[in-house]
Fold:
Amino acid sequence: MKPLLYSFRRCPFAIRARLAITISGVAVDTQEVSLRAKPKEMLECSPKGTVPVLMLANGRVLEQSLDIMHWALLQCDPERWLDSNHIVATEMMSLIQRNDEWFKPKLDLYKYSVRFPEHSESYYREQAEPFLADLEARLSNDGYLLAGRYTLADMAIFPFIRQFSNVDPEWFYASSYRHLIQWLDHLIGSALFHSVMQKTEG
Ligand SMILES: N[C@@H](CCC(=O)N[C@@H](CS)C(=O)NCC(=O)O)C(=O)O
Structure:
C-alpha cells in the first residue's frame, strides 16, 4: 500500500510537501481535499485539520509539511536539498522558521486585507517587506538563498513568495526586488513546479 497524501492544490504548505515527494521519486497516492469539507478519514488521523497530511502504510501520520519534506528526502535526495553540513542545515531551518512564523502571518494580513480594514493593503505589504529584503540580499550573491544551490530553504519558501506576488503582481514585478523576481520566476517556470500543480482527480 502506498502512503496517502491529503493535499490542497494551491496551499503553499502542501505545494512544498509535493515538491519534496516528487523530487524524491517516492510513490504516494494524493487526495485533493476541500478545505470546507475535509474527509472524515483525514480528521480521524489528524484532528488539527490542516493539509498536508501524509498517512504512511505503517499507520504513522505526518501532519507538518516540513516533516513530510524530510521524510521524502531522507529516502532519496537526488538534488541534495538537505545538507549534511550542520551549519548549513541550521541556517536553512532558521530561515524556513522565519518564513513560517514571521512572514506567513503578515502575508495573510496582506492577502486578506479587506477582512482587516483597520489598515490598508499597502500597510500590510510594508509590514511583510523586511523578509523580502532579506531574501533579496541573499539572492543577490549567487541566485540562491544559501549554500550556492537550491536547498530545502528555497523549496520550502518560494510557494509563499509566489502567494505574496499574486496579491498584486503589478506591484511585485515593478518592485526593486530584482533577484527575488528572477528566483521566483525561475522556480515557478520549472518542470518540477508544473508537475506538482497538475490538477488531480478527487
Ligand atoms: N504547519 C502546517 C500548516 C498547514 C496549513 O496551515 N495549511 C492550511 C492550508 S494552506 C490549512 O490546511 N488550513 C486549514 C483550513 O483552512 O481549514 C504545515 O506546515 O503543514
Observations:
- The chain has nine helices and four strands.
- The mean pLDDT is 97.
